[in-house]
Write a structure and sequence with these properties.
The protein is built from 8 helices and 8 strands. The chain is an alpha+beta fold. It has a 6-stranded mixed beta sheet, covered by helices on one side.
Length: about 240
């Protein structure tokens, strides 16, 4: 795993946006609303959330920068692994620098492996819609713009697609967000793990400006809104964590 100092050249735009925002916030003693992380939205659990007898399940979700989505689900009880990566495009374009063009069909996504005896797919979706991202934003999240930051449920099978579709309709009818939900469902698209330097990024870089502004509040919202689902020690991809 690379150290924070060696990571900076990999994503200068995201790093620069975070640094500028943090300096402005410090000067004004607050974070500008357009740069602040999305607020949590308290939403009902899915009305349709069937049980499964499987020993393990995987959900693949995209909701903006994968650092924050991964960081949230690493703190969810019942999740056994959460890997940042890319979904929606071809294997040959599943690279950070290429995906960043917005022309590959990929979205930054997270593959969430979980124990369905501890947490259901529906509950995973509830956390995803409530605290992991803002599902009303089309092809953007916070300061990030482009189709690679779209809100998408990459359903792994027909049942996941059905549950996700029903839940989106349920939330839409309830007016849970006060705006139309932009989340799409893409069925059985392959997931490709991201480069090693993207894994566990939130935990390894808690003081990075982008993380401070956009992602740490999501983890705090998880603890506040879903205290029974929150765990303090994240499940990490890397074997050792430093910093």
């Amino acid at each position: 795993m690379n150290t924070p100092s060696t990571l900076a050249p990999k994503f200068p735009r995201r790093m620069a946006l975070g640094a500028v925002a943090l300096l402005a916030a410090a000067a004004a003693f607050k974070i500008a609303p357009s740069l602040a992380a999305e607020k949590a939205v308290v939403i009902p659990a899915p009305a349709d959330d069937p049980a499964t007898a499987a020993a393990t399940e995987t959900a693949v979700l995209a909701g903006g920068c994968f650092w924050g989505v991964q960081g949230v689900f690493q703190h969810v009880k019942g999740v056994t692994n959460a890997v940042s990566g890319y979904a929606g495009g071809d294997e040959k374009t599943a690279r950070y620098e290429t995906v960043g063009s917005g022309r590959t069909g990929h979205a930054e996504a997270v593959a969430i492996t979980y124990d369905p005896k501890q947490i259901s797919y529906g509950r995973i979706l509830q956390i995803y819609f409530s605290v992991a991202h803002n599902p009303t934003e089309l092809n953007r999240q916070g300061p990030d713009r482009g189709t690679q930051y779209r809100s998408t449920v990459f359903a792994q099978n027909d049942e996941q697609a059905r549950v996700a579709k029903a839940y989106i309709e349920q939330l839409g009818k309830a007016g849970s967000f006060g705006a139309p939900i932009a989340t799409t469902i893409e069925l059985q698209k392959r997931f490709f793990p991201a480069e090693a330097y993207h894994q566990d990024y939130l935990t390894l870089n808690p003081n990075q400006p982008y993380i401070v502004i956009n992602d740490l509040p999501k983890v705090a919202n998880l603890q506040k809104v879903f205290p029974e689902r929150y765990r303090a020690d994240p499940v990490l991809v890397g074997k050792r964590v430093s910093g």
